[in-house]
Amino acid sequence: MLRYLKRLRIGVSVVFFGLIALVFLDFGNMIPTSFTRGLLYPQFIPSLLQFLHGAAFGAAGCLVVVMSAALFGRIYCSTVCPLGTLQDVIAFAARRRRKRPGFRFARPDRWLRYCIATAAILLLMAGSGLLLNLLDPFSACGRILVDLVRPAVVVINNIAAAMLEQFGVYELSRKQWAVLTPVAVGVAAATLGFVGWLAATRGRLYCNTVCPVGTLLGLVARISWLRVGIDPNACTQCKRCERVCKAGCIDLRNMAVDSSRCVGCCNCLAACPEGAVRFENGWRRVAAEQLDRGRRAFLVHSGVSLLGLAGLAETNATVLQSKPTTVPEAVTGPVSPPGSVSIDRFTVVCTACHLCVSVCPSRVLSPSLLEFGPSGMLQPRLNFRAAHCNYECTLCSEVCPTGAILPLAKEEKKLTQLGVARFIKANCVVFTDSTNCGACSEHCPTKAVQMVPYPNPLNRKLVIPAVDPDYCIGCGACEHACPTKPFKAICVDGNPVHKRARKPKPATAETKIDATADFPF
Fold it and tell me: Whole-prediction pTM value?
């Protein structure tokens, strides 16, 4: 019966990994947010942060994981963790290609393991969860899927759609190109390369040396109830169990299994021909063990990430400017997603898993560089050069697994002021070229930007933007629509703490523009 546990474990891990990948690669936003929240419930670090910042039952997935580790060891690492499954796939492929003889017992490097975890905790206490979120397995896997896999899938999809269109087949639609951020892509590629190399050469060394979740669950697993043990009377020293142990934790010389490093893969149970490898009741030996209490203090409560960059491409139509604009926007602060409440709160709770980036239909969310400061690197910000925040959309607040972006009703979101638009007259074509435009006002959903008469030396019937900050919600529609280059004539200054805007006025007739004048773009 124990031999089938390996197959069960593989099946569960494949299902979890497949569903998580589907959530991150869902182009049409077809997956219900309730399903997404349920799927991400047992992801440890996101659930932990959400629980610590709002102790609700729905955020207590981390407690379920800890309880499972206390009962059955680190089964989270071998079934639920997506990065763990990815490591298993890479290790399996490497062994098949190189025909490696297998793994062998390795002594635990506890000094390095606890130093990394301690460094993450100290940075966290200093106000930066940079190291913690960089090493968080769920967030790392999310960045790999969003920044590496998703763009490749979009390219393949669009190429296939273009080819089918040549034959009159339109069932496959083209998808919007992702806004690639070089540093975010570089971090994801470096993570994949590092984790992949360790998995191919040393199995689960990342989980047992680098990963903070593995360190914490390893401490709990040391006192787990059900753990793998070896019957010395039945063991024939064939070493089959040792060769399939990807954690390198089976010490046949001492007939012992290091339960703190065992990831519960059940490979050894399936490989042992004598049945010498079996489950034991670990609680019978707890009283005799001298546990290091200091090692139980590794509960982490915050998150950030490493290195991101602003979006690149700008898709607005070309404006017929007489000369390039010269006044930089110089925004006073970045714009955090709707539902994040404040930048300080957002940078503490967000783990930069990029799930919100993945589901954002307009692609306005982009990984940041230093906009949020060093502790907010890679966390998503609203990049209005790439797009604007849809007036009716609340998807990012519905899928956030940590609670960094709180759920918002659509009506509430429409009155949440993320920032305030600021008009830069010196960059506007109405001022520089004495020609009408009105793109910013046309795209403003709350009509906080209105066109007012503009007296000019040529006595033309010109109108120029005027911003009413009380009605502005900082969605960036005006900034994205503004066609001036290289600097915009209108930009959004982010609010450090989100405010409430006034309800938009009823629609009124728009100011007429002289249709005989030259259209600026």
Answer: 0.76
